[in-house]
Specification:
elongated; Flag_bb_rod_N; LlgE_F_G-like_D1; 9-stranded mixed sheet; bacterial flagellum; 41% strand; 3 domains; Flagellar hook protein FlgE
Length: 462
């Protein structure tokens, strides 16, 4: 066997060795986040020509060339850039890219690109790559999470009202109604219903266990105190586990009033005429597992017709909340009046510019007679605070309506809030990072930068 034959055979061993190395690398990185498998392609080496091809002549046929291959070589090693599977980790800054693109990292001088989104915060609260410490780049700058930030309080200037005023309500006998400050919701957000578990209400902060209690306190329309305890759990010894069970318990606790659920609100209704002191308050028992952020409201007025009452919390510049009660009464077929009141300890209503709320014959909102401004005077302040109400667009059904069915008007948006401390940060599907604060406010911090390449396989691994 000649030396050339040995050399040719060795090229085959070398290429096979490369192929085995690629296979081994793929196997070794089965659990490596962001790893893309590779494949090797072979081609034959330069061929040695012993005799060139000869064309046929009139008397002799043609001859094919005599060629000897000199072995095999690695033609290319290709990276498979197909989308990998995604797995949840439970860590807020473990990110993955759905589709094409690379996260952009920087050491302050050079940019690096990776599909691995295992990030965390360093001592300066900068978002960095866990393996290298390189900072993660956003669209405009590197990303810093302001964990020590406080959002200052903001005084209420605008409140959006949405819901229905029952077209069937009369202008005769009093029908006193009290509703919770805000609607209870489930994920979506959709309004909670009677079948919604108390643990599934968004206001629930800790799931209840059997034996946990909810205190129901308040006043009947005649001022009689109401005090009862709802016990969470199934079976005869307990009162139930759903919002509907709690509603039924409230109804049973109030002798001359009935509790219902309307658009997620717990609504307490009484037909007693004259001055009404009806109110209800819910609170969790002390030293227990379950907890929910309950809202409450109260009103004391003399009605001359059907009324619907809702309470709106208004915030001053220091973030203190002052409840303002709005009482809607039907004046005529398509016209309603509204009165704003406050408890003396909370302040006073200086003026309300709304003299009438007008609806179209189809039940859509038409207009407001007067202005939509409410002026209040708060205790301890020298001046007044002006709040505007938004009832929705005219001639469409995106705000308040007058349709057949339960009344459910409530505030869905309030630009006032108390001061809030940083609570957490989350990353949206478009890469936008938002900070959430204890007062429910959010701030957009930055958007994670993605880099795309026409030929990502052309990148050199570091």
């Amino acid at each position: 066997m000649g030396v050339s034959a040995l050399a040719t055979g060795i090229t085959g061993l070398k290429t096979s060795q490369t192929a085995l190395s690629i296979i081994g690398d793929n196997l070794a990185n089965l659990n490596t986040a962001g790893f893309k498998s590779s494949r090797v392609n072979f081609s034959d080496e330069l061929t040695q020509v012993l005799r060139s091809a000869q064309a046929p002549t009139s008397g002799v046929g043609g001859k094919n060339p005599l060629q000897i291959g000199t072995g095999a070589r690695v033609a290319s090693i290709d990276v498979n850039n197909a989308q990998g599977s995604l797995e949840p980790t439970g860590r807020p800054f473990d990110l993955a890219i759905q589709g094409e693109g690379f996260f952009v990292l920087t050491d302050g001088t050079t940019d690096f690109y990776t599909r691995v989104g295992a990030f965390n915060l360093d001592q300066n609260n900068d978002l960095v790559d866990s393996a290298t410490g390189f900072k993660v780049k956003g669209v405009s700058a590197t990303i810093n999470i302001p964990v020590n930030t406080v959002v200052p309080a903001n005084a209420t200037t605008l409140v959006d009202l949405v819901g229905n005023l029952d077209s069937g309500m009369s202008t005769g006998a009093v029908n006193q109604v009290v509703t919770t400050t805000s609607a209870y919701q489930v994920a979506g957000p959709a309004p909670a219903t009677q079948g919604t578990s108390l643990d599934n209400v968004l206001a629930n902060t800790t799931n209840y266990v059997t034996g946990d209690t909810i205190s129901v306190t308040g006043d009947e329309t005649n001022g009689t105190d109401v005090s009862a305890t709802f016990t969470y759990g199934s079976g005869a010894a307990n009162d139930g586990t759903t919002l509907g069970d709690l509603r039924d318990f409230i109804s049973a606790s109030y002798g001359s009033s009935t509790a219902t659920i309307s658009s997620g609100n717990i609504v307490l209704t009484s037909d007693a005429p004259g001055v009404s002191k009806l109110n209800v308050s819910l609170s969790d028992g002390a030293s227990q597992t379950g907890a929910t952020t309950f809202s409450s409201s109260s009103i004391a007025i003399t009605g001359s017709g059907d009324t619907y009452v809702t309470t709106v919390p208004l915030f001053d510049a220091q973030g203190k909340s002052y409840p303002v009660t709005l009482t809607f009464s039907k004046a005529s077929t398509d016209t309603w009046n509204v009165v704003a009141t406050m408890k003396p300890a909370d302040g006073s209503v200086t003026s309300l510019g709304i003299t009438a709320i007008n609806f179209n014959t189809d039940g859509s909102f038409a207009s407001v007679t007067g202005t939509k401004a409410l002026t209040i005077t708060l205790p301890g302040t020298a001046g007044t605070q002006v709040v505007n109400f938004d009832f929705g667009l005219a001639n469409v059904f995106n705000g308040i309506t007058q349709l057949s069915g339960s009344s459910s008007v409530a505030a869905i948006s309030n630009d006032g809030f108390e001061a809030g401390f940083f609570l957490s940060a989350s990353v949206n599907t478009d890469g936008t990072i938002e900070a959430l604060f204890t007062n429910g406010q959010t701030q957009t911090l930055e958007r994670i930068q993605l880099a795309t390449f026409a030929n990502p396989a052309g990148l050199t691994k570091n």
